[in-house]
Specification:
InterPro entries: Homeodomain-like_sf, HTH-type_TetR-like_transc_reg, HTH_TetR. This is TetR/AcrR family transcriptional regulator. Keywords: DNA-binding, Transcription, Transcription regulation. It holds the Pfam family TetR_N. This protein is mainly α. The protein folds into two domains: 15-66, Homeodomain-like (Arc Repressor Mutant, subunit A); 70-160 and 169-195, Tetracycline Repressor, domain 2. The chain has helices at 15-29, 36-43, 47-51, 57-66, 83-100, 102-109, 115-122, 124-132, 137-160, 172-195. Helix 5 (83-100) packs parallel to helix 9, helix 5 packs across helix 10 and helix 7 (115-122) crosses helix 8. The N and C termini lie far apart (94 Å).
């Protein structure tokens, strides 16, 4: 009688392998290019092989977002006390995050990740910094939307610029643009308040 335990076929799939392949597909083809069937084909398995690990595409995307601390992973320093510097630094961290995580940029550009959702989940430092500048209500919301436009524009420019991987990405233009924008917003708000 044979008492050895049969190990069976070694697993070909893992959550990490599925996530890495999904990330590649989204970076190459955008969110619209990702389906469970397309993912299974790329991995050489059936869709049921994927569903064993993730019940749906939404669950897979949720897992992808929760794998790391998001934007906080891309901060260079501790957040400064000065709210203007904090907003600039948080904005630069978002640009670095989107540059390093092309699937997230693709999701934003394709409309699968909304501004409000991304802000709520990853940009509390930025929104808190804007409020600490003395902006509230509609002025704060308009300022955050303006910052978002600058950040997305910078991320798109960086992602499309051909350069060697080892070459550092310039951040001076983003910093100067953000500082200028904030100064203009603050000036506008204070001028408007004085006129009333």
């Amino acid at each position: 009688m044979d008492t050895t335990i049969r190990q069976g076929r070694p697993p070909r799939m893992s959550r990490d392998k599925i996530v890495a392949t999904a990330t590649e597909i989204m970076a190459e083809e955008g969110y619209a290019g990702l389906s469970m069937r397309r993912l299974a084909d790329r991995l050489g398995t059936s869709p049921m092989g994927i569903y064993y690990y993730f019940a749906s595409k939404s669950e897979l995307l949720g897992y992808l977002f929760s794998r790391h601390d998001g934007v906080a992973d891309y901060r260079r320093d501790r957040l400064p006390e000065d709210p203007c510097e904090r907003v600039v630094q948080a904005s630069e961290a978002v640009v670095r995050f989107l540059e390093a995580q092309p699937w997230a940029l693709a999701g934003i550009l394709d409309g699968y990740i909304g501004f409000e959702e991304f802000t709520r989940n990853h940009l509390s430092d930025l929104t808190d910094g804007v409020r600490d500048l003395g902006l509230d209500g509609e002025e704060a919301a308009a300022t955050v939307r303006g910052i978002w436009s600058i950040v997305i524009g910078e991320a798109v420019l960086r992602s499309s610029a051909p350069r060697p991987r080892s070459a550092p990405r310039p951040s001076a233009s983003c910093t100067a643009t953000m500082e200028s924008y904030l100064a203009g917003r603050l000036n506008r708000v204070h001028s408007h308040a004085e006129a009333q």
